[in-house]
Structures are given as C-alpha cells and as structure tokens.
C-alpha cells in the first residue's frame, strides 16, 4: 500500500512537472513583449494620424499598425534570442522561456524571422509603402544587430545607439501616408530619439545591480548614478523644445503646445529632484512610470490636436 502511494505521488509529480514545462500560446506572446509593442504602436498611430490630418484611410491605418507591430515583435523576439545567456543572470528575467528552457533557441529564432518577414511584407505589399517597409527593415537591423548583438554588450553608448532604432515606429506610421521623409517625419523621429535614453536609464538605475551581474555596461553601472542623472536631464531639457516643433510647423494646434509644455516641464522637474532623492530606487521607479505616461499622453494630445486639412 505504501509502495503504491509512493508511485502515485511520483506520477503526480511527473505530470505536474510536464504541465509546468509544456509550451502554450502565452509563451509566444511573452516573447514579443506586449507592453513594448503597445506603447510603440501608440506612436505609430500618432505618426499616421498627424500625416493624415484627419483624412484617415482606416484600412491602411489598421494594416500599418499590424505591419509595424509585427516588425517590432520580430525585434523583441530576436532580442530575447540573443540575450538569453545574459538574461539568465538577471533576477527579473529568469522566468523568460528561453532561460527556463520551455522553448528552444532554434524555435525562437525562426519565430522572430517569420514575424519580421510578415511585418515587412504587410508594409510593402498591403500598405503599399516601400518607404515604410524600408524604415521597418532599417529599424529592425539597427535594433537586432547594432544595438542588441553589439553595443548592448560592449559600450556605455548602447542606449544612445538603441535610440536610433527605437525612434522608427512613428515615422513608419507617418511615411505610410506621406510616402516621403519630410519635416514632420524628422520631428517625430527626434521626439522618440530624445525620449528613450532618460526612459531606459531610469530602469537602469532601478535595476543597476542586475545589469551589473549580467555584465551589461550600462551608463549607471559603469559611471554611476550622478553622471546618469546629468545625462537624463540633458535629453529631457532638449526634448521639450523639440516636441514643440510640431506646433511651430503647424502640424498640431495650441492644445498640443500647452500639453507638451506642461508634460515636459513636469518631467524636467521630476528629473531635477533626482539629485536630492533620498531613495534613488523609488525616484527611478517614478521616473520610469512618468516617462511612459509622458509619451502616451503626448501622442494622445497630438492626435486630438492634429491640424485638419484645409478645404481649398
């Protein structure tokens, strides 16, 4: 009787172990980092809307967001693939499917490649925008090979380099409409480019010891928090006037102007408070959350305040 009970317990444990390591669709969703896809899709939507000036082709909008999301998902999956060895050293990333072994590297690599091809195909053939597809390809290449595979592992300039690819989504949305890279596309690119370093460095300060243990030469790890805070404030202070260029060039109305000023000044104020913060981790956490809210609110106001096409 005792022997049978022991066998039953072992069998149950085996079943539980199998269930816990079985692959589900949620594992594939986790790989694409839905939060990153969602926040960047908001910027792609904003870029499309500003270029459309309220004359929106809804089917093209949906297809543009789909293609852009697939390309971004390809980048995040391939990022997971390349970073799997370093993720294993970080407490916050130890449950990722490549670290736990739930999915094999070859499957993840194939998954990322398929997503990228699908996204670029949607932008080129269904959105009918070779320029948007080219921007997607450039952004994907910069993110995967220049940022993830090279600079992220070797240089404190990694966050700066990563900003070149991270600023592409709103430009894809914009150029899907205009089919040209003009002043509007450049301003949108600069907004995202300047936003990213202080956003990511806030996370870097909060998880500095994890990044140190994993061997990432992130700015706060190599130089410390004070130089990082100085770098953050420089980007934010520059971001405020750059964000107002959309108003200066008449892409948006006064609502955006006042909203961008208020949001920018608040983020600047919070950044300055970091120099006297008693609890750096709490300050960094708040900076990270505010940075996400800043970008989301800025693009919502941008959409609402977009200048409509004037009837001729």
Question: Mind explaining what this structure looks like?
Answer:
There is one protein chain. The protein is mainly α. The protein has a single domain (26-305), classed as Farnesyl Diphosphate Synthase (Orthogonal Bundle). Helix content is 80%, strand content 0%. The protein contains 17 helices and no strands. The protein has helices at 2-21, 25-31, 34-52, 58-82, 84-87, 97-100, 105-126, 130-154, 158-166, 169-178, 183-206, 208-214, 219-223, 225-243, 245-248, 254-273, 280-305. The radius of gyration is 22 Å and the shape is globular. The termini are far apart. Mean pLDDT is 92; it is low at 1-20.
- Computed over alpha carbons, the radius of gyration is 22 Å
Tally of domains: 1
Tell me roughly what share of residues is in helical segments: over 70%
In total, the number of strands is 0
Please report the first level of CATH classification, the CATH class: Mainly Alpha
Structural class: mainly alpha
What name is given to the CATH topology? Farnesyl Diphosphate Synthase
Distance between the termini: 91 Å
Q: What's the main sheet like?
A: none
Query: Could you say what the CATH architecture is?
Result: Orthogonal Bundle
Q: Count the helices. How many?
A: 17
Mean pLDDT: 92
Order of helices and strands: HHHHHHHHHHHHHHHHH
As an assembly, this protein is: single chain
- What is the overall shape? globular
Low-pLDDT stretches:
1-20
User: What portion of the residues fall into strands of 2 or more residues?
Assistant: under 5%
């Amino acid at each position: 009787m005792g022997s049978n009970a022991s066998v039953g317990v072992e069998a149950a444990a085996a079943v539980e172990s199998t269930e816990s390591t079985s692959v589900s669709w949620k594992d594939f969703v986790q790989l694409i980092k839905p939060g990153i896809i969602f926040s960047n899709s908001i910027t792609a939507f904003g870029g499309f809307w500003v270029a459309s000036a309220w004359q929106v082709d809804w089917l093209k909008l949906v297809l543009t967001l789909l293609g852009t999301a697939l390309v971004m998902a390809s980048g995040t999956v391939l990022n997971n693939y390349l970073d799997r060895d370093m993720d294993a050293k970080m407490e916050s990333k130890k449950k990722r499917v490549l670290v736990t072994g739930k999915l094999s590297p070859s499957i993840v690599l194939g998954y990322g490649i398929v997503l990228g091809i699908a996204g670029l195909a949607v932008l080129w053939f269904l959105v009918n925008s070779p320029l948007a597809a080219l921007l997607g390809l450039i952004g994907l290449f910069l993110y995967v090979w220049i940022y993830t595979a090279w600079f992220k592992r070797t240089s404190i300039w990694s966050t700066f380099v990563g900003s070149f690819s991270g600023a592409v989504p709103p430009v894809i949305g914009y150029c899907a409409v205009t089919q040209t890279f003009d002043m509007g596309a450049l301003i949108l690119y600069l907004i995202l480019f300047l936003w990213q370093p202080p956003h990511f460095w806030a996370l870097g300060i909060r998880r500095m010891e994890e990044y140190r243990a994993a061997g990432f030469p992130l700015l706060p790890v190599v130089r410390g928090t004070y130089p990082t805070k100085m770098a953050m404030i420089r980007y934010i202070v520059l971001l405020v006037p750059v964000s107002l260029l959309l108003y200066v060039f008449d892409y948006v109305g006064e609502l955006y102007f006042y909203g961008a000023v208020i949001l920018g000044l608040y983020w600047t104020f919070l950044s300055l408070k970091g120099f006297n913060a008693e609890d750096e981790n709490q300050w960094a956490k708040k900076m990270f959350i505010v940075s996400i809210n800043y970008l989301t609110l800025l693009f919502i106001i941008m959409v609402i305040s977009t200048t409509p096409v004037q009837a001729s």
